[in-house]
Amino acid sequence: MDVSDIEKAKKQRIEILEKLGKGVYSQIEHGENPSLTLPTRGLSNVKYDKENRIITLGSGMSKRYFLNVGHVRKFVQTMAMAALSKELIKSDKHTSLRSAFYQVRRTIPGTKIDVVDDQVETNKAIEDLELITGLTREQLHINANKAGSVAGEVVIEDRGDVIDWSKLGSGGWAIPSNVEDIIFRKVDAKFVIYFEKSTMFERANEDKAWKKLHCVIMSSQGQATRGIRRLLQRLHEEEGLPVYVLVDFDPWGVYIYSAIKFGSIALAHASDRLALPEAKFIGLMAKDIDRYGLRRHLIKFKDIDAVRLKQIKDYDWFKNSKEWQEELSRMEKLQAKVELDAFTAKGLSFMTDEYIPNKIKEKDFLD
To answer: Do 132 and 181 sit in the same domain of this protein?
Structure first.
């Protein structure tokens, strides 16, 4: 991707939004009840695409009409967000989810009714606009808060600024919500490791694990943000880097991996821009508990852990995998979890000096 690609993409987004507006205007000119067509949201319309190994929306569609008491409010809110997004893209500016709420909040002339009353409404309108246009929130120039870090021998250009991920100290580069327009100028790495926990990232960054292992290291705090998932996808698709996910041995860690690899139910409409079916799970695994002497660090399951594990075992994308069913059954039998932090009992650098190199060398991962 270069500057010309970025400008071309922005022009296409504006055209998509203008087409939406012109479509509604044309319906009004022809005396029709203006309507918006969008995929039906909800679990009943979420499918697992076995061939592409991602979670997607099904074919169910719904219509929202302006001249319908039950629809008009959401109709107006969605069009207001479309107008805001078009102006943001044209002016090459971005706004936050919170600021977007204030930017569209106004009283309808001649009434005491506000277009939106709270941010929940604008957030849903943005999601509806994603469904209608096929554009992600970030492509619409609406961002969430930063929540993640990355380090490695990578040089990028971000809105004219050249940034070297290897020269940003102990904190690494703060990953923004919107990584669509980042240009990779230099990528000197063999793979990417995503850490579930920022504490483990910081430990690895202090060791300069990215240099020792010739890789990129990345982390959020728990669930990967949309910006992180998109950045992982871009590094894999554009730079050919394998992606390995390192999480706690518990149902929540497995779910973090699941969302990175297959996508999530809540964002099924954006799986093609976020999911990474080629991502590999490098642990923690049940066999690592005895292999690395971690049994003394077992933490007994709470009821919520057991319930979450049962839900995950029933996901279609895990249900038909013999390897995953065996791994999850071992966790179920153990009724306990182990955190990545337990490795520090074996030495502060054990994870980056021993565990990760062994896993990758032996190709000891789950797919």
So the answer is: no
- What CATH number is given to the structural domain containing 216? 3.40.1360.10
State pTM to two decimals.
0.90
Measuring CA to CA, which residue among 218, 282, 276 is closest to residue 247? Answer: 282
Domain check: are 10 and 123 in the same one?
yes
Residue type at 296 in one-letter notation: R
What is the rounded distance in angstroms from the CA atom of residue 130 to the CA atom of residue 6? 19
* Alpha carbon 159 to its chain's center: 22
- For residue range 332-367, what is the model confidence (pLDDT) as tens digits? 999 999 999 999 999 989 999 999 999 999 999 999
Closest by CA to 316, choosing from 271, 262, 280, is 262
Q: Examine residue 91 and state whether it is found in any structural domain, yes or no.
A: yes
| Residues carrying an active site annotation | 102
Radius of gyration of the chain (CA): 23
Q: How many domains does the chain have?
A: 2
CA distance 274 to 268: 9
Residue 329 maps to a domain: yes
Question: What is the residue range of 334's domain?
Answer: 149-361
> What is the helix (H) or strand (E) element at residue 336, kind and residue range?
strand 336-337
pLDDT in tens, 280-290: 999 899 999 99
Q: Which helix (H) or strand (E) holds 210?
A: helix 209-212
